Amino acid sequence: MDTPAPAVRAVLRTTDVEQARAFCRRMFYGPLEAELSGSRDGFAFSGDVVQTGPLTIGEVSYGAEMCIALGDLRTAYHVLAPLTGAVHARHRGAAVTADPGRAAVFQPAGDVETRWTADCRLISVKVERLAFERELSTPDVPGGRPRLGPAFGLAGGPGRSWLGLARLLHHELREPDGLSRLPPLLRRWRDLAISALASAVEHPAGDTAPDLPTARRPRTVKRALDAMHAEPGRPFTAQELAAISGVGVRVLQESFRRHVGVPPLTYLRRLRLEGVHADLTRSGRGEVSVSEVAHRWGFTHLGRFAGAYRDRYGTTPSETLRDHP
Hints:
This protein is of the alpha+beta class. It folds into two domains: 8-200, Sandwich (Jelly Rolls); 219-322, Arc Repressor Mutant, subunit A. It has eleven helices and twelve strands. The chain has helices at 17-27, 129-133, 157-174, 183-200, 219-230, 238-245, 249-259, 264-282, 290-296, 302-313, 317-322, and strands at 8-14, 32-36, 45-52, 55-61, 66-70, 76-84, 87-91, 94-98, 102-106, 112-116, 121-128, 151-153. The strands form two sheets. It has a seven-stranded antiparallel β-sheet with strand order 1-3-4-11-6-9-12, sandwiched between helices. A five-stranded antiparallel β-sheet has the order 2-5-10-7-8. Helix 5 (219-230) crosses helix 6 (238-245) and helix 8 packs antiparallel against helix 9 (290-296). The radius of gyration is 20 Å and the shape is globular.
Protein backbone atom coordinates (compact mmCIF):
# COMPACT_ATOMS: atom_id res chain seq x y z
CA MET A 1 0.00 0.00 0.00
CA ASP A 2 1.30 3.47 -0.83
CA THR A 3 2.28 6.01 1.80
CA PRO A 4 0.21 9.19 1.48
CA ALA A 5 2.17 12.27 0.51
CA PRO A 6 2.36 14.86 3.28
CA ALA A 7 -0.70 17.04 3.57
CA VAL A 8 -0.37 20.47 1.98
CA ARG A 9 -1.80 23.43 3.88
CA ALA A 10 -2.29 27.01 2.66
CA VAL A 11 -3.74 29.92 4.64
CA LEU A 12 -4.62 33.38 3.39
CA ARG A 13 -6.37 36.36 4.93
CA THR A 14 -6.57 39.42 2.71
CA THR A 15 -8.66 42.40 1.66
CA ASP A 16 -7.35 42.12 -1.92
CA VAL A 17 -9.81 40.43 -4.30
CA GLU A 18 -7.09 39.41 -6.77
CA GLN A 19 -5.05 37.72 -4.03
CA ALA A 20 -8.14 35.78 -2.93
CA ARG A 21 -8.88 34.75 -6.50
CA ALA A 22 -5.31 33.52 -7.06
CA PHE A 23 -5.36 31.57 -3.80
CA CYS A 24 -8.56 29.71 -4.72
CA ARG A 25 -7.28 28.97 -8.21
CA ARG A 26 -4.10 27.48 -6.78
CA MET A 27 -5.79 25.36 -4.11
CA PHE A 28 -8.94 24.33 -6.00
CA TYR A 29 -9.27 25.11 -9.74
CA GLY A 30 -7.50 27.09 -12.42
CA PRO A 31 -10.65 28.19 -14.32
CA LEU A 32 -12.15 30.09 -11.37
CA GLU A 33 -13.52 33.62 -11.47
CA ALA A 34 -14.39 35.52 -8.30
CA GLU A 35 -15.98 38.97 -8.50
CA LEU A 36 -17.69 41.26 -6.01
CA SER A 37 -21.41 41.47 -6.72
CA GLY A 38 -21.96 44.57 -4.62
CA SER A 39 -20.02 46.92 -2.39
CA ARG A 40 -16.51 45.88 -1.37
CA ASP A 41 -17.24 47.23 2.11
CA GLY A 42 -16.54 44.41 4.52
CA PHE A 43 -14.58 42.32 1.99
CA ALA A 44 -12.14 40.27 4.04
CA PHE A 45 -11.22 36.94 2.53
CA SER A 46 -10.29 34.07 4.85
CA GLY A 47 -9.16 30.73 3.47
CA ASP A 48 -7.61 27.79 5.34
CA VAL A 49 -7.21 24.84 2.95
CA VAL A 50 -5.59 21.42 3.35
CA GLN A 51 -4.99 18.90 0.60
CA THR A 52 -4.16 15.22 1.02
CA GLY A 53 -4.09 12.96 -2.01
CA PRO A 54 -7.39 13.17 -3.89
CA LEU A 55 -9.14 15.16 -1.13
CA THR A 56 -9.04 18.93 -0.58
CA ILE A 57 -10.91 20.52 2.35
CA GLY A 58 -11.06 24.23 3.08
CA GLU A 59 -12.89 26.68 5.29
CA VAL A 60 -13.59 29.77 3.20
CA SER A 61 -15.37 33.12 3.61
CA TYR A 62 -15.31 36.47 1.77
CA GLY A 63 -17.15 38.90 4.04
CA ALA A 64 -19.02 40.42 1.08
CA GLU A 65 -21.47 39.29 -1.59
CA MET A 66 -19.56 37.41 -4.29
CA CYS A 67 -20.22 35.87 -7.68
CA ILE A 68 -17.94 32.89 -8.19
CA ALA A 69 -17.89 30.85 -11.38
CA LEU A 70 -16.04 27.68 -12.29
CA GLY A 71 -15.34 26.34 -15.73
CA ASP A 72 -16.14 22.73 -16.58
CA LEU A 73 -14.88 20.79 -13.53
CA ARG A 74 -14.17 17.60 -15.53
CA THR A 75 -11.76 15.96 -13.05
CA ALA A 76 -13.43 16.40 -9.67
CA TYR A 77 -16.62 16.47 -7.64
CA HIS A 78 -17.15 19.46 -5.38
CA VAL A 79 -19.31 20.09 -2.32
CA LEU A 80 -20.13 23.43 -0.66
CA ALA A 81 -21.46 23.11 2.89
CA PRO A 82 -22.24 26.51 4.46
CA LEU A 83 -21.72 26.94 8.19
CA THR A 84 -23.34 30.39 8.07
CA GLY A 85 -25.09 32.29 5.29
CA ALA A 86 -25.98 30.75 1.95
CA VAL A 87 -24.80 29.99 -1.58
CA HIS A 88 -27.18 30.17 -4.54
CA ALA A 89 -25.88 27.98 -7.35
CA ARG A 90 -26.73 26.90 -10.87
CA HIS A 91 -25.14 23.82 -12.40
CA ARG A 92 -26.19 21.64 -15.34
CA GLY A 93 -29.55 23.41 -15.58
CA ALA A 94 -30.44 22.96 -11.90
CA ALA A 95 -30.72 25.76 -9.35
CA VAL A 96 -30.00 24.96 -5.72
CA THR A 97 -29.51 26.93 -2.51
CA ALA A 98 -27.00 25.65 0.02
CA ASP A 99 -27.28 26.75 3.63
CA PRO A 100 -26.40 25.28 7.06
CA GLY A 101 -29.07 22.63 6.53
CA ARG A 102 -28.17 21.60 2.99
CA ALA A 103 -24.99 21.17 0.94
CA ALA A 104 -24.65 21.70 -2.82
CA VAL A 105 -23.04 19.01 -5.00
CA PHE A 106 -21.32 19.73 -8.32
CA GLN A 107 -20.45 16.92 -10.73
CA PRO A 108 -17.50 16.87 -13.16
CA ALA A 109 -19.44 18.23 -16.14
CA GLY A 110 -20.65 21.71 -16.99
CA ASP A 111 -19.94 25.20 -15.69
CA VAL A 112 -20.87 26.26 -12.16
CA GLU A 113 -22.23 29.69 -11.23
CA THR A 114 -22.61 30.66 -7.57
CA ARG A 115 -23.61 33.72 -5.57
CA TRP A 116 -22.41 33.89 -1.95
CA THR A 117 -24.16 36.00 0.67
CA ALA A 118 -21.93 38.38 2.61
CA ASP A 119 -22.21 36.31 5.79
CA CYS A 120 -21.39 33.01 4.09
CA ARG A 121 -18.68 30.89 5.68
CA LEU A 122 -18.45 27.35 4.41
CA ILE A 123 -16.60 24.08 4.12
CA SER A 124 -15.46 23.60 0.54
CA VAL A 125 -14.56 20.02 -0.42
CA LYS A 126 -13.03 18.82 -3.67
CA VAL A 127 -12.70 15.09 -4.40
CA GLU A 128 -10.91 13.87 -7.50
CA ARG A 129 -13.32 12.10 -9.77
CA LEU A 130 -12.11 8.48 -9.75
CA ALA A 131 -11.47 8.45 -6.01
CA PHE A 132 -15.12 9.40 -5.47
CA GLU A 133 -16.68 7.25 -8.16
CA ARG A 134 -15.09 4.05 -6.88
CA GLU A 135 -17.24 4.50 -3.76
CA LEU A 136 -20.50 4.86 -5.67
CA SER A 137 -22.76 1.94 -6.49
CA THR A 138 -24.73 3.63 -9.25
CA PRO A 139 -23.69 2.46 -12.70
CA ASP A 140 -22.23 4.99 -15.11
CA VAL A 141 -24.70 6.65 -17.45
CA PRO A 142 -23.77 7.55 -21.04
CA GLY A 143 -20.95 10.05 -20.79
CA GLY A 144 -19.42 8.27 -17.81
CA ARG A 145 -21.13 10.00 -14.87
CA PRO A 146 -23.22 8.44 -12.10
CA ARG A 147 -26.64 9.95 -11.42
CA LEU A 148 -26.51 12.19 -8.35
CA GLY A 149 -28.80 14.82 -6.90
CA PRO A 150 -27.69 18.48 -6.73
CA ALA A 151 -27.77 18.66 -2.91
CA PHE A 152 -28.02 16.67 0.32
CA GLY A 153 -29.17 17.38 3.85
CA LEU A 154 -26.80 18.29 6.68
CA ALA A 155 -29.24 18.42 9.58
CA GLY A 156 -29.15 14.70 10.31
CA GLY A 157 -28.24 11.24 9.08
CA PRO A 158 -25.29 10.58 6.76
CA GLY A 159 -24.97 14.25 5.78
CA ARG A 160 -24.48 15.46 9.33
CA SER A 161 -22.01 12.63 10.01
CA TRP A 162 -20.02 13.42 6.86
CA LEU A 163 -19.77 17.14 7.66
CA GLY A 164 -18.58 16.36 11.19
CA LEU A 165 -15.97 13.99 9.82
CA ALA A 166 -14.81 16.48 7.17
CA ARG A 167 -14.42 19.26 9.75
CA LEU A 168 -12.55 16.98 12.14
CA LEU A 169 -10.20 15.85 9.37
CA HIS A 170 -9.64 19.48 8.37
CA HIS A 171 -8.77 20.33 11.97
CA GLU A 172 -6.42 17.37 12.37
CA LEU A 173 -4.52 18.16 9.17
CA ARG A 174 -3.88 21.69 10.46
CA GLU A 175 -2.29 20.46 13.69
CA PRO A 176 1.49 19.84 13.68
CA ASP A 177 1.02 16.74 15.83
CA GLY A 178 -2.17 15.59 14.08
CA LEU A 179 -2.92 12.92 11.49
CA SER A 180 -0.21 14.12 9.12
CA ARG A 181 2.31 12.47 11.44
CA LEU A 182 0.55 9.10 11.08
CA PRO A 183 0.43 8.31 7.33
CA PRO A 184 -1.40 4.94 7.54
CA LEU A 185 -4.08 6.42 9.79
CA LEU A 186 -4.31 9.50 7.59
CA ARG A 187 -5.02 7.34 4.57
CA ARG A 188 -7.84 5.51 6.38
CA TRP A 189 -9.44 8.76 7.57
CA ARG A 190 -9.15 10.28 4.12
CA ASP A 191 -10.77 7.27 2.47
CA LEU A 192 -13.48 7.24 5.15
CA ALA A 193 -14.29 10.89 4.42
CA ILE A 194 -14.67 10.10 0.71
CA SER A 195 -16.76 6.99 1.41
CA ALA A 196 -18.97 8.91 3.85
CA LEU A 197 -19.60 11.57 1.21
CA ALA A 198 -20.64 8.88 -1.27
CA SER A 199 -23.09 7.64 1.35
CA ALA A 200 -24.48 11.13 1.99
CA VAL A 201 -25.18 12.25 -1.57
CA GLU A 202 -28.73 11.86 -2.79
CA HIS A 203 -29.67 9.76 -5.81
CA PRO A 204 -32.69 10.51 -7.98
CA ALA A 205 -35.70 8.25 -7.50
CA GLY A 206 -35.03 4.72 -8.62
CA ASP A 207 -31.29 4.74 -7.96
CA THR A 208 -29.44 3.04 -5.15
CA ALA A 209 -30.39 4.15 -1.64
CA PRO A 210 -27.80 6.62 -0.35
CA ASP A 211 -27.09 4.56 2.77
CA LEU A 212 -25.83 1.65 0.63
CA PRO A 213 -22.94 3.21 -1.29
CA THR A 214 -21.30 -0.04 -2.40
CA ALA A 215 -24.18 -2.52 -2.28
CA ARG A 216 -24.38 -3.09 -6.03
CA ARG A 217 -20.64 -3.16 -6.70
CA PRO A 218 -19.28 -6.74 -6.45
CA ARG A 219 -16.54 -7.42 -3.96
CA THR A 220 -14.35 -8.71 -6.78
CA VAL A 221 -14.51 -5.33 -8.51
CA LYS A 222 -13.89 -3.47 -5.24
CA ARG A 223 -10.75 -5.53 -4.59
CA ALA A 224 -9.30 -4.56 -7.96
CA LEU A 225 -10.25 -0.90 -7.49
CA ASP A 226 -8.67 -0.81 -4.04
CA ALA A 227 -5.46 -2.38 -5.37
CA MET A 228 -5.18 0.16 -8.19
CA HIS A 229 -5.87 3.13 -5.92
CA ALA A 230 -3.34 1.85 -3.37
CA GLU A 231 -0.54 1.47 -5.95
CA PRO A 232 -1.46 3.39 -9.09
CA GLY A 233 2.11 3.37 -10.38
CA ARG A 234 2.45 -0.41 -10.22
CA PRO A 235 2.57 -2.09 -13.66
CA PHE A 236 -0.56 -4.20 -13.14
CA THR A 237 -1.62 -6.68 -15.80
CA ALA A 238 -5.15 -7.93 -16.34
CA GLN A 239 -4.04 -11.32 -15.01
CA GLU A 240 -2.67 -9.79 -11.80
CA LEU A 241 -5.85 -7.83 -11.17
CA ALA A 242 -7.95 -10.93 -11.80
CA ALA A 243 -5.84 -12.88 -9.30
CA ILE A 244 -6.27 -10.11 -6.70
CA SER A 245 -10.02 -10.22 -7.30
CA GLY A 246 -10.19 -14.02 -7.13
CA VAL A 247 -11.83 -14.47 -10.54
CA GLY A 248 -10.80 -15.09 -14.11
CA VAL A 249 -9.74 -12.32 -16.46
CA ARG A 250 -12.89 -12.57 -18.59
CA VAL A 251 -15.16 -12.39 -15.53
CA LEU A 252 -13.31 -9.35 -14.17
CA GLN A 253 -13.43 -7.59 -17.54
CA GLU A 254 -17.17 -8.12 -17.80
CA SER A 255 -17.77 -7.04 -14.19
CA PHE A 256 -15.83 -3.81 -14.76
CA ARG A 257 -17.73 -3.03 -17.94
CA ARG A 258 -21.01 -3.54 -16.11
CA HIS A 259 -20.28 -1.82 -12.80
CA VAL A 260 -17.54 0.70 -13.66
CA GLY A 261 -18.16 1.35 -17.33
CA VAL A 262 -14.67 0.59 -18.66
CA PRO A 263 -12.20 -2.35 -18.53
CA PRO A 264 -9.79 -2.49 -15.57
CA LEU A 265 -6.68 -1.33 -17.42
CA THR A 266 -8.57 1.57 -19.00
CA TYR A 267 -9.67 2.59 -15.51
CA LEU A 268 -6.05 2.32 -14.32
CA ARG A 269 -4.87 4.59 -17.13
CA ARG A 270 -7.51 7.19 -16.22
CA LEU A 271 -6.51 6.97 -12.56
CA ARG A 272 -2.88 7.63 -13.48
CA LEU A 273 -3.78 10.50 -15.80
CA GLU A 274 -5.82 12.15 -13.05
CA GLY A 275 -2.89 11.72 -10.68
CA VAL A 276 -0.51 13.36 -13.13
CA HIS A 277 -2.97 16.19 -13.83
CA ALA A 278 -3.45 16.86 -10.11
CA ASP A 279 0.31 16.87 -9.45
CA LEU A 280 1.01 19.21 -12.36
CA THR A 281 -1.69 21.68 -11.34
CA ARG A 282 -0.38 21.73 -7.76
CA SER A 283 3.28 22.20 -8.77
CA GLY A 284 5.03 25.41 -9.64
CA ARG A 285 7.31 25.89 -12.61
CA GLY A 286 10.76 24.54 -11.81
CA GLU A 287 9.55 22.32 -8.96
CA VAL A 288 9.02 19.20 -11.08
CA SER A 289 9.34 18.04 -14.68
CA VAL A 290 6.59 16.41 -16.72
CA SER A 291 8.65 13.24 -17.20
CA GLU A 292 9.30 12.98 -13.46
CA VAL A 293 5.60 13.17 -12.63
CA ALA A 294 4.65 10.80 -15.46
CA HIS A 295 7.11 8.15 -14.31
CA ARG A 296 5.94 8.52 -10.72
CA TRP A 297 2.43 7.56 -11.87
CA GLY A 298 3.57 4.56 -13.89
CA PHE A 299 3.86 5.97 -17.42
CA THR A 300 6.99 4.61 -19.08
CA HIS A 301 6.32 5.65 -22.69
CA LEU A 302 6.22 9.45 -22.67
CA GLY A 303 4.93 9.78 -26.24
CA ARG A 304 1.86 7.62 -25.61
CA PHE A 305 1.37 9.32 -22.26
CA ALA A 306 1.39 12.79 -23.83
CA GLY A 307 -1.17 11.72 -26.44
CA ALA A 308 -3.49 10.20 -23.84
CA TYR A 309 -3.17 13.30 -21.65
CA ARG A 310 -4.04 15.61 -24.55
CA ASP A 311 -7.05 13.48 -25.47
CA ARG A 312 -8.39 13.65 -21.91
CA TYR A 313 -7.66 17.26 -20.97
CA GLY A 314 -7.44 19.06 -24.31
CA THR A 315 -3.97 20.41 -23.55
CA THR A 316 -0.45 19.10 -23.13
CA PRO A 317 1.17 18.20 -19.79
CA SER A 318 3.79 20.92 -20.22
CA GLU A 319 1.08 23.53 -20.83
CA THR A 320 -0.70 22.43 -17.64
CA LEU A 321 2.51 22.85 -15.66
CA ARG A 322 3.29 26.19 -17.28
CA ASP A 323 -0.20 27.58 -16.61
CA HIS A 324 -0.02 26.93 -12.84
CA PRO A 325 2.78 29.06 -11.37
